[in-house]
Amino acid sequence: MSEKRTSLSPARFLSARRRHRSAGLVVLLFGLLAVGSAYAAFAPGSAVADNSAQSQQIEEGKKLFAVGCSSCHGLNAEGSGNGEGDMAGPSLIGVGAAAVDFQVGTGRMPAMQPGAQVPRKTPTYTPEEIEALAAYVASLAPGPAVPATDSYDISKVTDEQVTRGGELFRTNCTACHNFAGKGGALPNGKYAPSLMNVDPKHIYEAMLTGPQQMPVFSDQVMLPEDKRDIIAYLHALQEQKDPGGFGLGRLGPVSEGLWGWLVGIGLLVAVAVWIGAKGVKAKGHGAPGAKAEGAKAE
Amino acid sequence: MSDTKEKAPATAEFPPPVKWLDDRLGVGKIGRKNLRKVFPDHWSFMLGEIALYSFIILILTGIFLTFWFKPSMAEIEYQGSYSLLKGLHMSEAYASTLDISFDIRGGLLMRQIHHWAAVLFIAAMMVHLLRTFFTGAFRKPRELNWVVGFGMLFLGIIEGFIGYGLPDDLLSGTGLRITQGMIQASPVIGTYLSFFIFGGEFPGDDMVSRFFTVHVLLIPGLILVLVTLHLFLVVYHKHTQYAGPGRTEKNVVGYPLMPVYMAKAGGFFFVVFGVTALMGALLQINPVWLYGPYNPAEVTAGSQPDWYMGWLEGSVRIMPGFESHFWGVTLSWNLLIPALLIPPAFVTLVALYPFIESWITGDKREHHILDRPRNVPTRTGIGAAFITFYGLLWIGGGNDLVATHFDVSLNKVTWFLRFAVFLGPVLAFWVTRRIAISLQRADEERLLHGLESGIIVRSPDGGYSERHTPISNYEAYELTAHDRLVPYEVGPETDDNGVRAPRRALNKLRAKLSHFYYADAVQKPTAAEIEDAHSHGHDDDVHELTDTEAFHEVTPDKH
User: Fold this and answer.
1) Complex ipTM, two decimals?
2) Strand B329-331 vs strand A80-81: parallel, antiparallel, or unpaired?
3) Is the CB of B119 less than 8 angstroms away from the CB of A256?
4) pTM, 2 dp
């Protein structure tokens, strides 16, 4: 440390002592320190070497990755082809911890089979394992981090902000996710999933990282408070009871038409058949209508 | 009034207040005639009633809604009790719809009954139309009443669509935007027409107030006129009836309007009102608060019209995106064909079908006995083809929900429909026609040979045969009440003097179509044929096995 202080001293101080008998040693030490620091700064493995807990987590994540993810994403997360020129799994370098937390946290990853889109399912990994995987992928290159809890905390959101979130939702999200967040179809078997019963953190991360077909809404494009308001609106939608009765899936006029035909017309035709049958039976058996003959046509 | 005797003067038995009225209005005479009017009884004759009653419900609930709906596009800030939209800027129309839904007692129920009644109104008209079609009730003298009914259906659909556009929510605005696109796609006049209808650029400020007048005044008025005409013509023509003992082309067998039919119809009105009210109370329809105010920059997945416009939506959805550009003009075939050519062609065919059929068949007689669908296989096939065509386009209108709910690719649904919409109707026509002909054959079998009794008789020389019992005369009458259908013949090319017949090519076409129409249908047996068939069975009551009837044989080794 004394050498360091020496190097920080004014030039004259250095100049006066340059012929000091230990000057050579000091320069040597200084050189070693500089090289060492530079190495520490640029070599990824040892950059966090001083934080043993984090490095341990990354190490654990790397192991999990090698077992569960590398068959598609490559041993070093560089992505890999399936031998036919198609990408089996994209490169994960630079996707950030948020992407891992979303994909693995919603159960989408590890994927069970290739397809148009990987569906949401029960997560395979525990929260600790997901953190480890995220830490490993984040250690490869900088990318969006897992958002802090207060950025998607909707407990203190005001009614005005919820309304604002609704406008943002209708402007940016409903085109694919439907007016009630029920999801919708996209080309070639892809789809925008339902947003009901999704963890606020995952909604936030999805906007941040743009998983699968979704575009990225970075924090520069859509401010963190915009994201929070949208999440708050979705939460309100989910909590809201349908004031008009059974919501028919909140899918729009198609399900209404289906109910109108199956229940409405179905019921009325059934009653018509019943009334029609009733009259004949009440009036007489045998030949239908034979009892009430009448009104000759002119 | 039902006990009013024919011979007694109409006013003789009326109690004083009624007599007072009758002296001044003379309704007794009209009532005496018309209240005894006989209507045949069959459940399928009540389908039109569903439409009529829904229309009445629509008027009643609609009047309620006009008390609070503000047909204005003036921009205001919403301050009602629905918190998720509070403080947003929106049109008065949308805000008042929200008020009706949340702040007016019974408003949401009325809105939902109104909407469900609209759904049922048009569905019931369509079901009624199908009944009329498949039973041939549109034949002379009822062709014009068919056209009147079609007019109501057409107006009802327009009325419903405009009603869907009134609340000025995101869904209705999106629907109107698509409609405006279709209007603009019409060559030459498109832009003018769009400006004319919307009073300027879309959406403008006039849309809601204009559509409101059309929705509450113009179209309901027209429908009311047509309903009156339709019912008047039903009374004038008298109702058709299904074939049966005692029923001829010259009489109507059924119950008098008063009291039997009055009670049935009145009761049925309350059933329809009850079902509609139940649906309005239990099933949420058009939750406008979820869609938000209309904003041309927004759109939502699941933007679909109400069901009756679904086939049009589907027609546009499955059309490939063709466009041509020349001399600075764009022709949008992707709208022109699916929205402006195919639907009008389809509905024109439906509207004119009675005239087309009577021209082809050359049948100019009056018909009051209804056809069984099987006895006119080609017409029944055409009906099935129309239903298939309509149904496939209808599915196309919900292709996104088909994709998500049945886990198939949206593109595959669309491509399937692009082919199915042409092949499906042909297949449906062919299959239905064959089924109808098979049913006719089964009827003929029943008529000529009677019922299979299930009793197997072994003859002395070891052969087996099944005993057949003849059907009742009632049933035989029913099965033979229709006419033998003979194809139109083109006639000789020249008459005796060697003069060529006029309009030869047209008549040839007509003969060809007529042949196609009737040729494969099974002609009902003549009286002689029935006589013959019965006499050979009557001697021993056991069917003798002939070569052609070998399929009746039951041999032990088959079991």
Assistant:
1) 0.87
2) unpaired
3) yes
4) 0.85
